[in-house]
Amino acid sequence: MKLKPLFSALGIAGLLTSSLVAQQVPAPNSFDDLAQPSADVQMPKEYAKTLAASAYVWGWPLINQHNRRAKITQAPEPSLMNGTIPVAPGGHLAMLHDYIKPEQRFVACPNQDVVYGLGYMFLDKEPVVVQVPDFEDRFWVYAMYDARTDQFSELGEPYDTKPGFYLVVGPNWDGEKPEGITAVVQSSTEYGMVVPRVFQDETAEDKKAIQPFINQVVMYPLSEFDGQMKTKDWSQLKSLDMGGTGSGGETQWVVPENFFDTLGEVLDVVPPLPGEEALYAQLRQLLAVADRDPEIKKTLVETAIETDKNVISEFLRWEHNGTPAGNRWNRSTHNAEWGVDYYDRTGTARSNIYDNKIDETRYYYTDFDSDGEQLDGSSSYEVTFAAGQTPPVNGFWSLTLYDKSHFFAPNELNRFSLGTKNKSLKTDDDGSLTLYVGSESPGEDKESNWLPAPQGTFCLYIRAYWGKPAILDGTWQPPAVKKVH
Prior knowledge:
five-stranded antiparallel β-sheet, 11 helices, globular
């Protein structure tokens, strides 16, 4: 299935075109008029179905973000949701103190290169202060996302960010920078979130050395700011049973049966981008008709279920994410700076939500070997980086293996990725680096370079943090995944 043509057929292209044209061509009604749904509109079922399918694909990332925020901020204090994911009430964050656990199902495509944090902001209520300690020469980045999953921050080593206190404010804030605040970061929506990432290598020594740094990664409301760097021992977080995480695939953050019950609330709190006014007006009219017409409401629910199955589920296939990068790999496009790239925004929200921006991280992914065959644990593969051709980065790189649902696959080594963090990788005599991928060990002498695979299908994923020019301009190509047997 080719998703981009299907995406257009669903009407996204038409909706976008109509909203952009509306900026240039005088309309008989003002947008203020359009924003008020008409009480006497009779909407044919097939029209409602077409518009609903477009709305579902367009709004899927926004509903996803909305539902995650609603769940996570139920935590009464910084905690670990079900012992795996940091959670905190609005205006605060929580940090892990080690790599993310393989059993978590909050977010697909996690990595075990960094120590993660997570926090949500209600900036319509109060700005928040985010602490940046002196990380010395350790790689770090704080990615901040708005309600659309666009990243609005530039905080991290790639930006030469200085230690200090950073005030995060909403889009309508026009106050003065308080004394003691290093800089102000303005969100594009009233709701925001932050995901700190701090690099850690595989050694016990580094796991100990990182603790003083991450213990000063703290967020709190402006009213609690006193100019002093606060410290929190994140290793002491309590586990909080919040239910609903399940196993196998990612937690179902978007339930199609409930999608249109929530869409109106999202439209109210996430303002349209320039050019989206007409789209918002059409969606409000659709919801208004559904409120008074049970048959149209039924059509919306049926369409959401069908679109989730036929369109959204296909985004788990990497061929539908980003652009070709050579050797059967795709590379990420417009990471976390989606704007009106609704296709990649939705594809990433389903497959690997919360990308970093490209100047922070470039992602490469594949489901296929060099012959175009699905990767499967019943076979063995080699991934060889020629001498000097590992991903060219200023930060770090890794190759991660995920199961068919984009989560870690349990294995005897408890190993899910290989790269910069690994201190025992062996290079070949010619200086190249060969990584072995498969369910069977390549032999004791090669096990340091072995990435264990599950029985069944899997995929591979390369991260290049703080890429050099060949990463940024897309000229670096990942190596072929060669099937050995």
